[in-house]
Design a protein that fits this description.
The chain is of the alpha+beta class. The protein contains 4 helices and 5 strands, in the order H-H-E-E-E-H-E-E-H. The strands form 2 sheets. The chain has a 3-stranded antiparallel β-sheet, with no helix packed on it. It has a two-stranded antiparallel sheet with strand order 1-2.
Amino acid sequence: GHLNAARCATDPLHVQNNTCANWVADFTVCTTTTYYQDADGDSYGNASVSQSACGQPTGALAPGRRADWVVLDGAQPLLAGAHGDAITERWIFGGDSRFVRDVMVGGRWCVREGHHPLEAQADAAFASVIARVTA
């Protein structure tokens, strides 16, 4: 996946696992886009209410906003009795990928019930590489 500066700076999981170590080497400058609020849904933005970003506007659950979701598996024992920030803290500092049940990126589900649609293909490709490397 792609990492960005904000994620590397604020996501303890990526810092902890050192996946951001090479971020600077992969940095590319994005073209800033200005997004205009469309509160009435008429497809014409309000020129006096805008936001500039490299991606889509975030920060609210509303039409026209980017929909990125991670749904955790509430059946995980470590999450038992957790509320609010404690849920995220237990997942980040004590959990692993088994805690993630569903993932939505840009309004499209890419992981459902813990499985990516291309998981079987990825597993087969990985097994093929391992077989060639160890032959």
